[in-house]
Amino acid sequence: MTINANGSALPVNGSTKVSHSDGIPIELVATPAPEKQTNVKTLPPSFYASFISAESRARKPNSIRGLFPLEKVPGVISLLAGKPNPETFPISSLQITVRAPPEDGTSSQVEKTLDISGSRMAAGLQYGSTTGYEPLVAWWEGLQTRTHGRTKGEGWQVSMGSGSQDFLYKSFHALVNPGDYVLVESPVYSGVLPILESLRAQIIPVDTDSSGIKSSSLKHILENWPALRPFPKFLYTVPYGGNPTGLTTSTERRREVLALAQKYNFLILEDDPYYFLYYGKALRPPSYFALEGELEEVGRVLRFDSLSKILSAGIRIGFASGPKPILDAMDLHTASANLQVSSLTQVITHTVLESYGYEGFVKHTEMVSEFYRQRRDIFEEAMHRQLGGLAEWSTPEAGMFFWFKLLLNNTSSQTIEEDSEELIQSKAFENGVLALPGTSFLPTGGKTAYVRASFSLVDPNDIEEALKRLREVVLKARGE
Ligand code: PMP
């Protein structure tokens, strides 16, 4: 017996009608997975029916975009799209200079000039596919297979968004009806909260600790779920170098979360922009997307990747990898909201990635993560000197953040409320240091003594001074 996202039991064979939170009854058919060449069973398209939001089901395809592939049929003369004629465009080629990863046996990067012209330039200047520039999508699919061991065509596909934020927004719109329950790790990436709040999702926080999301808390929540309440549709989590915690969820926890997702029938939205910023290569836990590939049935994990932290944040390239019915719903949103990601940035990105090749790309990401590891070490040494005894933290293993708790209570003084907001927003800022109070990351509000400090951009020579300024205000708050 399976429980659907609406909370009612779904028979393993046969079909049932369920009423969604928007009251639209839809047919759920528990059909066996379509016959495939491989041993991997994928959840059938009908499985997703109870997950897709009413907004998404009401969205109609863009009638012109849907016909674009027909323009490529040999012999067809197209009078279809309102595509501008590139002969009228002023830019005819681009030259970009990239710092390529070191060649074998060397340690320094090599500068290379890449030309973008001809048909590649034409593609960059023209409208393109809603799901992304095909060579770039194919490149990323290949990377997913190499990185996460998932074979193309086995229950997942890739689409492109303008950064992962674009797809977070679209995935939430694809799934959430007002009043739907969603699980989010706490503290959570603050960028998702306004989206979930505007969709009027009921946000259920799941605790985290130094090993990432606490599967025991998740289990407790689900085991004690009120009988008549619809079960949550998904869990949102940042598994590597979490924002704001900088922490990484252990493999054991990930397996437990996946098992709970199967038992209680929710999806896992794995937002992973810091995947390649994982410092400890040997101990890297597998992604949820990879772990799901070991299961008998795949199709619950929707993975988000971003090039923002490893190639450029301004280029605005993100990828979603996951089940077709959800990606299709997100692509329909793209087709009506912004048509596609910029063709030009996709072509530039593909040119760079192609010149790197998969090996070169991995080398490049290792250089990036090593850069941040060194910055983390410099920051942590200064933390010990300036905030030792005044703050508590776990050392981040990925990403670009320290998440630390200010010890605002001095045993000799009266108890001060555990709240860093006023101290960070006013006093620390007045003393010349800017950080984020932890309250920004609490899914359902409240107070916290935690603070997020980013070490990605600060000049290493300024770190000691920044933390000294923070120390001064903490000592003052403690009455010392
Ligand atoms: N998710 C998380 C956890 C992030 O930290 C960020 C960026 N701060 C994003 C998503 C958005 O990234 P992108 O630039 O790819 O839109």
TrEMBL record:
InterPro entries: Aminotransferase_I/II_large (IPR004839), Class-I_PLP-dep_aminotransf (IPR050859), PyrdxlP-dep_Trfase (IPR015424), PyrdxlP-dep_Trfase_major (IPR015421). Residues 157-470 form the Aminotransferase class I/classII large domain. The keyword Endoplasmic reticulum does not apply. Transmembrane segments: none annotated. It comes from the Eukaryota. Keywords: Aminotransferase, Pyridoxal phosphate, Transferase. GO terms for biological process: alpha-amino acid metabolic process. Belongs to the class-I pyridoxal-phosphate-dependent aminotransferase family. This is PLP-dependent transferase.
